[in-house]
From TrEMBL:
GO terms for biological process: RNA modification. Keywords: Chloroplast, Plastid, Repeat, Transit peptide. It is found in: Plastid, Chloroplast. The keyword Translocase does not apply. InterPro entries: PPR, PPR_rpt, TPR-like_helical_dom_sf. The keyword Repeat applies. Belongs to the PPR family. PCMP-H subfamily. Gene3D superfamilies: Tetratricopeptide repeat domain (1.25.40.10). PPR repeats lie at residues 138-172, 240-274, 341-375. This is Pentacotripeptide-repeat region of PRORP domain-containing protein. It comes from Gossypium barbadense. Pfam families: PPR, PPR_2. GO terms for cellular component: chloroplast.
Amino acid sequence: MPASLVHLHTNNCSSIFAHPPMLIQTQINPTLKIPSFSRKPIQTHTLKDICLRGNLKEAFQSLPVSSNDHPDETYAPVLELCAQKKALSQGLQIHAHMIKSCSVSESVFLATKLVFMYGKCGSVRNAEKVFDQIGQRSIFTWNAMIGAYVSNGKPFEVLQTYKEMRVLGVPLYAYSFPSLLKASGLLKNLYLGAEIHGLAVKFGYDSTVCVVNSLVAMYAKCDDLFGARRLFGRIDQKDDVVSWNSIISAYSSNGRSMEALELFREMQKAGLDSNTYTAVACLQACGDYSFRKLGKEIHAAVLKSAQLLDAYVAGALVAMYVRCCKMSEAVRTFNKLEEKDKVAWNSVLTGFIQNGMCSEALHFFHDFQNAGEKPDQVTVISILVACGRMGYLLNGMELHAYAIKIGFDLDLQVGNTLIDMYAKCSCVNYMGYAFNRMPDKDLISWTTVIAGYAQNSYALKAFELFREVQLIDIDVDPMMIGSILLACSELACVS
DNA sequence: GCTGATGAAC
């Protein structure tokens, strides 16, 4: 690309000629000035370049063996690279290297980088350990810590840290808000979100584009679409793709396809380029059969624009075809994927089940296992549903054993599906066992188990559990009443 | 130096 070369070239020139007085001095005695450039900065600069190139192995080989005079410049780029690659074991090695050369405790900058690296690599505990040891924390340190919490799905910890910041009087800066607002959204705590919104106004960051975008997302996650729309409407310069993506995604994830797609059209009219996030949000809105044509159009546009299909876009495409009951298209899209991740596998799997193709789902599960994938909760739930519908008790039990082995049977949703599977396979004893083992039970658990007993002619057992439901504070739902009526007719009692 | 918006299930 000639244009970027020219750009780079002029940039270098401007930095060299940025200090004319120096230049005058060097002109007096140029030959002596040249060797006075120390070798150190050149070395660390190359390490930074290696890191920018993204080769972790090369970066490791270029690390100085003993302690050096520029720990910040040495370690910061390597830590950043570890974070980018989510390379925890390498990050730990760098941390060890740093301890050996005594450069962690003195530098808040490097300690903050460590917190950031551990957060990105998914090790909240290590991030906390480093964070706790830092005496004088900067606002960057606090932001790195709450960022680590929020990106690892720990909104309660964000809330706690936020309270600590308030008590200590740490002033919030622009970049504190996105993480705090995301945590409010994860907690669906509109009250907290509004409080943080208030602080953003107080500190004067409510017009900062990333803060506004985070606010839009927060209100949407807290089911306040009106609030999200009002904020989006107040943005003067609507020229940021993320702002549009936030509001489109707000509508599409709340099932408001029409509004989402109207906003997408408006965005196109404004002449803004969409990206993968836009595609995902729009595809989500194309779940309705009536939008299948638009979904195909977006599919075509995506194929045209991206050389390599983004994992999220691919997943959204598969999910879109599933919702439009186009399983052959879904499978075709899935097969074209170079990197098939778990969500993509699960989308196809649940697609088969939603479309009543249980034996296809079981076949597909064999492919899943042959590909060396490990089932997660969603996979287990899908296969249990298929087993139940097909009446495959032995396969269901096998999956139950697997679920127990890795502790999934304690999961509420997995437990509920196990109850349903055993009920459908008329295996009442194991159904009761699965139900009793559940540490938490919700309305669906009770409804499913009562229906299971009633449908398998265990009317008295159904009554017994119904009485228990009335004792604990759970609302009775129509499904449950239906099961109890069935049990009544079984016993021919009308009382 | 830290930051914002994405795909799956009973």
